[in-house]
Design brief:
The complex is a heterodimer of chains A (about 375) and B (about 375). Chain A is about 20% helix and about 25% strand. By secondary structure, chain A is of the alpha+beta class. Chain A has one domain. In chain A, strand 11 and strand 12 form a beta hairpin. Chain B has about 375 residues and is mainly alpha-helical. Chain B is about 80% helix and about 0% strand. Chain B has 20 helices and no strands. Chain B is globular and about 65 Å long. Classes of the chains: A alpha+beta (about 375), B mainly alpha (about 375). At the A-B interface, helix 1 and strand 2 of A face helix 2 and helix 4 of B.
Chain lengths: ~375, ~375
């Protein structure tokens, strides 16, 4: 549920629905950044990428704002990594080929690959895999929904993973840090956003993703919003540029987030996040600008998600790489941040690992479940 | 350029329909992914119980697959799942909404309206309930009621769907000018990449022009739908009919033959039978007609109200029993007082009168 079905448009066309992104220094090769973008929740094993969509990562250098206002200052120079896919072709004997893909970095590198080929495609400084994998996300989504509906923290000691044994389409890119730092003239902290985009003369951003559960846990619930309780806001938010939110709907997003963040804080039994003027929650501006932050100068870490954000809020420097590793229980970290601000025991949803944890070897994620159950149906004479 | 392509190019040039280029995912990939989506949800259902919302989503995907591929067995599967969903969740409004939709697909309109009332009472989201109610009112000829509800549902957030619905409404009213305005508006509002919604819209546009007797425009839109989604059976079937009307019978036959196996809808078998007989391939045509007749009768036994109109039209078109056609057309008129249903009934009545007049008084 990280961002699974994060809006009506995404649900209607799952091939554009970004479920998760990950960003971490390679555990195998120092000096290499790994980025992963997953789409198509609950994908059957035959799922294909769209040939009409650009699947991309956008990276910009960030620093802690010199104004000390607990925000990230985002640089202007951007590195974009774009993956495009072709329609499988038919050979002379009528068999369909594998889907082919190409990954291009805005600084000029590119690599071609076959979908589902575990060797991936390579070129100097770049390696890419794309294909169906076991979804690495783990979270008790239904208990989160129950929490929102009942107003009581509803997670159990042993939870049920919403995407247990489910598949997802995954794009995993490894690139040398130098490709990112030199092209962006910045670093070592980078903001990472994953996007699905309809290319063309006028590009249409279909979905974007920065951090887990921003849309589903903060923007989807309408009942805590003091201003708008009937707008489905996620599709609007998805179309925005993460690095440059337009003014038109900012107040609507703020109102929604302020209300929902206050709700989550209240679940801890006390106020850990004192609201500011006009009910502004201290985390709203930080999370509204939805991007993941990773420090490419730091080594790989198993559990470092939100470290840069916590350092920012405390006014200190980050000591780990931040970002997000596949096996990192990011959602527990996030829930703890929202509910207790870290002032107390860690909040757990009762699900502590994926169906099959990721390995430290490219392409990291486990092969997909191959056997969907047979479709039940009436007996029909043919 | 082959003769067929040349005539198609001319047809496009004459229609005045400049094709707006909206790039969508390839039809092949879209259908693979539709199946992958169904497989994934089925798998999730096998691992743990699907929520009512998820089960409803799965039912709609199966019904969509049925619509695209012309598979009545998929509608039946969706119906069975919707019934089970309601049995297991009798107090859930969304379950009743799902069942209303599946019943409406089989023209069980009274039961569907009852389900919608129940859905509303149980607190289902009123917008989709009202939209479904509007669709049923349109189907049974209560056009004013339908239009009022369609207009109420219009918002800028769902302009593609709302404009598309109004386009189809005005098309069925025989108002192509107004329908075209809404078809254009709907198309311009489309922001997705799935080819399916656009292909459905393009098909409806072609259907309208076919009913208006404008073969060129009908052909152009059916061709667009087929280009975008080659497996779309209704678009292929209707394109074949236009080709047959344009005396491109070889092309029409080639287009219909695969549909007689990939689809279990007898409309394609019936169309093939008609065309074969028209070009003098009488024995072949008769074989297909026999198959179509048997399949219509089977469907009337299982889903009478859903197939009485198509079966009656088939009997009238292929020289079958006019009295049986009248019986079916009458039932169709009972469940839906639309101009089309009235027209079918009148045609059946005339056919019976002709048959009676031709019969000698004494054998």
């Amino acid at each position: 549920m990280s961002d699974h079905a994060s809006g009506p448009r995404a649900f209607a066309d799952p091939v554009i629905d970004i479920t998760d992104i990950y960003a971490f220094p390679s555990p195998e090769r120092p000096g290499v950044l790994v980025l992963a973008l997953n789409v198509f929740p609950f994908a059957g094993p035959t799922a294909l990428f769209s040939d009409a969509v650009d699947y991309q990562f956008r990276l910009r250098p960030v620093t802690f704002s010199p104004a000390g206002d607990k925000s990230f200052a985002v640089g202007e120079k951007e590195v974009t990594i774009t993956c495009r896919f072709a329609i499988p072709t038919k050979s002379k004997d009528g068999r369909l080929s594998s889907q082919q893909g190409t990954c291009c970095v805005s600084s000029g590198q590119s690599a071609s690959f076959r979908v589902n080929d575990e060797q991936g495609g390579q070129s100097p400084g770049l390696r890419v895999f794309a294909g169906v994998r076991l979804d690495p996300f783990f979270f008790d989504g239904s208990r989160a929904v129950m929490t929102l509906m009942t107003g009581k923290l509803s997670f159990e000691k042993v939870g049920h993973a919403t995407v247990f044994r489910q598949n997802v389409l995954s794009i995993i890119v490894e690139l040398d840090n130098s490709l990112v730092t030199s092209a962006s003239a910045g670093g070592p902290l980078f903001a990472v956003v994953g996007e699905t985009v309809k290319p063309g003369t006028i590009q249409v951003r279909l979905e974007r993703y920065g951090r887990p559960e921003i849309k589903n846990l903060l923007l989807w619930p309408k009942q805590f919003d003091s201003v708008n309780r009937d707008i489905e806001i996620r599709d609007l938010y998805n179309q925005e540029d993460a690095f440059n939110l337009a003014n038109a709907y900012l107040s609507a997003y703020r109102s929604r987030m302020n209300g929902t963040l206050a709700f989550w804080d209240g679940l801890g039994g006390k106020t850990d996040w004192a609201l500011g003027e006009h009910g502004t929650h201290p985390l709203t501006e930080l999370l509204l600008r939805d991007f993941m932050v990773v420090d490419v100068s730091k080594p790989f870490s198993e559990n470092s998600s939100y470290d840069t954000e916590r350092a920012l809020m405390k006014g200190t420097n980050n000591t780990t790489c931040g970002g997000r590793w596949f096996n990192d229980d990011t959602v527990d970290t996030y829930l703890t941040l929202l509910i207790t601000a870290g002032n107390g025991p860690r909040i757990s949803d009762g699900v502590d690992q994926a169906t099959v944890p990721a390995t430290r070897t490219f392409p990291y994620l486990a092969p997909p479940e191959q056997n969907p159950p047979p479709v039940k149906g009436p007996a029909v004479k043919t | 350029m082959t003769a067929m392509n040349a005539s198609h190019a001319t047809a496009v040039a004459n229609t005045g329909d400049a094709p707006p280029q909206i790039t969508t995912t390839s039809g092949y990939i879209a259908m693979v992914n539709l199946q992958a989506q169904i497989d994934g949800l089925e798998k999730r259902g096998a691992e743990s119980r699907l929520s009512v919302a998820e089960e409803t989503g799965l039912i709609e995907l199966v019904a969509l697959r049925g619509h695209i591929l012309g598979r009545i067995t998929d509608y039946e599967l969706a119906e069975e799942r919707a019934e089970e969903l309601c049995r297991k969740n009798p107090n859930d409004g969304t379950a009743h909404l799902a069942r209303a939709r599946s019943r409406a697909r089989f023209h069980r309109f009274d039961e569907a309206l009852g389900d919608l009332d129940t859905a509303e009472r149980l607190g289902a989201n009123p917008e989709p309930v009202d939209r479904e109610r509007a669709t049923i009112f349109q189907a049974i000829g209560q056009f004013d009621e339908a239009l009022a509800r369609f207009r109420r549902a219009e918002t800028s957030e769902n302009e593609f769907a709302c404009s598309g619905t109004l386009a189809v409404f005005y098309a069925e009213q025989g108002n192509p000018e107004q329908a075209e305005e809404f078809f254009e508006k709907s198309q311009r509002a489309y922001r997705g990449v799935s080819p399916i919604p656009l292909a459905l819209l393009e098909f409806q546009r072609g259907h309208m022009w076919m009913a208006q007797g404008n073969r060129d425009r009908a052909r152009s839109w059916f061709q667009k739908a087929v280009d975008r989604l080659p497996e779309f059976a209704p678009a292929q079937g209707h394109l074949a009919e236009v080709e047959a009307l344009c005396s491109e019978t070889d092309s029409a036959i080639t287009r219909l033959i695969p549909l007689t196996t990939s689809s279990d809808d007898p409309d394609y078998t019936a169309a093939l039978a008609r065309i074969l007989q028209a070009v003098g391939r009488v024995e072949e045509g008769t074989r297909w007609r026999t198959k179509a007749t048997a399949r219509y009768e089977e469907l009337i036994l299982r889903h009478r109200d859903a197939f009485v109109d198509h079966a009656a039209a088939f009997l009238l078109a292929q020289g079958g029993n006019p009295y049986r056609a009248l019986e079916l057309a009458q039932r169709n008129l009972e469940i839906r007082q639309t101009p089309r249903a009235k027209g079918l009934f009148e045609r059946a009545l005339r056919a019976c009168e002709t048959a009676a007049a031709a019969k000698p008084l004494f054998a």
